[in-house]
Amino acid sequence: MLNSLANRLIAILYITFVFTSSTVFFLIALLIRLLTYPFDRRLWLLHQFTCFWASLYIWIFPPWSVTTIGRDKIDPGKTYIIVSNHQSLVDILVAFTLFTHFKWVSKAEIFLIPLIGWNMILNQYVRLERGSKTSIKAMYSRCTEHLQKGSSVYLFPEGTRSTSGKMRPFKEGAFVLAKRLGLPILPIVINGSKNAVPKNSLNFHGSTRVQLEILAPIEPTTFVDTSAAELTLQVQELIRARVAEEQQS
């Protein structure tokens, strides 16, 4: 009982700190946006600041640790379709620790969160309303614009977080984009984040070690003759083979 109350208190204090500090960080982000807009059309500097903002919430919280494997596989001069499995809200913070330039594709509700959602709007991240064909079409259009300007795009092909850690079927959107634009796919595997903030919970669940593994990019020349559906399954199985929960009997 006491342990449960302590975990709840830690969660409340952490969430309070996140939203309190976000007030200051959002004002800084707004200033960066105003000062750099004339010459930083991709909003690279604003995204780098957002990476710092998000990473800080990992760095200052000792129970959460992140280990990154394969960072050298990312070529900062290339534009990628980045895809990964999705276990937890913490995945977003973890992905920002890469400090590589990308635009998120995220569900529309996240953009409504005060300060954090507003910063997503400043960064011109891409919103998506589930089940809306109009929104899906707009998502493809916005992603195409960003990719053609040299900004990578990060998507969770599962569409939503897993409750068990085992992967949901991938949707084809990311892979349609990769084929349509002839861009490399950068697969990323996230392990351990499910234990930090499981779906449908904002409570503290003890110490968590998260591993972020960047796999070798899949070059477009290798999937020219592969359908989007086949490519989706191939990348899904590539990532599945590295997810811990998928290896448990």
Give structural notes:
This protein is an alpha/beta fold and 249 residues long. The protein has a single domain, classed as Glycerol-3-phosphate (1)-acyltransferase (3-Layer(aba) Sandwich). It contains seven helices and seven strands, in the order ααββαβαβαβαββα. It has a seven-stranded mixed β-sheet, with helices on both faces. Helix 4 links the parallel strand 3 and strand 4. Helix 1 runs antiparallel to helix 2 and helix 2 packs across helix 3. The longest helix has 35 residues. The mean pLDDT is 91.
Topology at a glance:
Layout: H1 2-36, H2 44-59, E1 64-69, E2 81-84, H3 90-96, E3 102-107, H4 116-122, E4 126-128, H5 133-148, E5 152-155, H6 173-181, E6 185-191, E7 208-214, H7 228-240
Parallel strand pairs: 1-7, 2-5, 2-6, 3-4, 3-5
Antiparallel strand pairs: 6-7
Helix pairs in contact: 1-2, 1-4, 2-3, 6-7
Binned strand content: 5-15%
Label the overall shape. Answer: globular
For the sheet with most strands, the description reads: 7 strands, mixed
Helical percentage: 40-55%
Oligomer: single chain
Rg on CA atoms, Å: 18 Å
Number of helices: 7
CATH architecture: 3-Layer(aba) Sandwich
CATH T-level topology: Glycerol-3-phosphate (1)-acyltransferase
Average pLDDT, to the nearest integer?
91
SSE string:
HHEEHEHEHEHEEH
**Top CATH class:** Alpha Beta
* Overall number of domains: 1
Distance between the amino and carboxyl termini: 32 Å
Judged by helices, strands and strand pairing, the structural class is alpha/beta
